[in-house]
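User: Reviewer 2 asked us to show a designed sequence for the structure in our supplementary figure. I'm pasting the structure tokens here. Could you produce the per-position amino acids so we can include them in the response letter?
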């Protein structure tokens, strides 16, 4: 759903969502480009549809990227360019919340950059980053890569680093995190900002501990512990 302002970053579970993932030519959202985009649509916790396409990035894919995602130049030469793939993705996601791993600092930057370039608009869908939820729900872990979370929850990791496989893995992880968010142990340490939907975190101030919005300084909500 395109609009003029980015949707809210929600730090909570929702039962209707689209989990998505990109494979790219590298890690820079300034210079790199998308080579695959995949998504899985979930309503009421049930998978109802999926979307996946390779993308012709109109540049050579660096070998170090191909070694990670196993996507090579000859595989994408007849694939649609990203303007077409992203338009199809926009139709697929409707107005649903987007879910993904590390999307706040990675995948969202790519799709917003390119939507703006193609159409002068950006995606207005709310979005949920499973990396943020995992850090809150599983403070005992030392690594938070998607494969680490899958291993923790004993979810199969076959085909990791291809976009649709990662979506499938992350869909299962998100459902488990949704369960974890209901547990009393996690609830004690996790609160959601009533103003913006991001997490509240415990902070120490001049007058003792308080709950402050993790969206600070964009959101300045606080409450007493
Ligand atoms: Zn807030």
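Assistant: Here is a per-position design you can include in the supplement:
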């Amino acid at each position: 759903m395109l609009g003029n302002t980015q949707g809210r970053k929600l730090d909570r579970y929702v039962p209707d969502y689209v989990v998505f993932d990109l494979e790219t030519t590298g890690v820079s959202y300034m210079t790199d480009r998308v080579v695959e985009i995949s998504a899985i649509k979930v309503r009421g916790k049930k998978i109802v549809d999926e979307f996946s396409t390779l993308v012709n990035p109109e540049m050579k894919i660096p070998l170090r990227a191909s070694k990670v995602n196993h996507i090579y130049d000859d595989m994408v030469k007849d694939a649609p360019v990203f303007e077409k793939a992203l338009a199809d993705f926009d139709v697929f996601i409707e107005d649903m919340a987007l879910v993904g791993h590390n999307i706040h600092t990675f995948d969202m930057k790519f799709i917003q950059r390119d939507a703006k370039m193609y159409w002068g608009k950006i995606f207005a869908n709310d979005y949920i980053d499973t990396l943020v939820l995992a850090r809150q729900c599983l403070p005992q872990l030392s690594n938070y890569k998607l494969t680490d979370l899958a291993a923790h929850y004993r979810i199969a990791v076959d085909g990791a680093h291809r976009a649709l496989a990662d979506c499938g893995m992350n869909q299962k992880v998100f459902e488990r995190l949704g369960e974890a968010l209901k547990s009393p142990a996690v609830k004690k340490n996790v609160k959601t900002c009533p103003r913006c939907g991001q997490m509240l975190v415990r902070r120490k101030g001049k007058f003792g501990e308080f709950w402050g919005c993790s969206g600070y300084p964009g959101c300045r909500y606080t409450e007493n512990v």
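For the response letter, you might also mention the following. The first strand starts at residue 2 and ends at 3. Helices lie at 63-69, 73-76, 82-93, 107-119, 130-137, 146-152, 163-180, 184-189.
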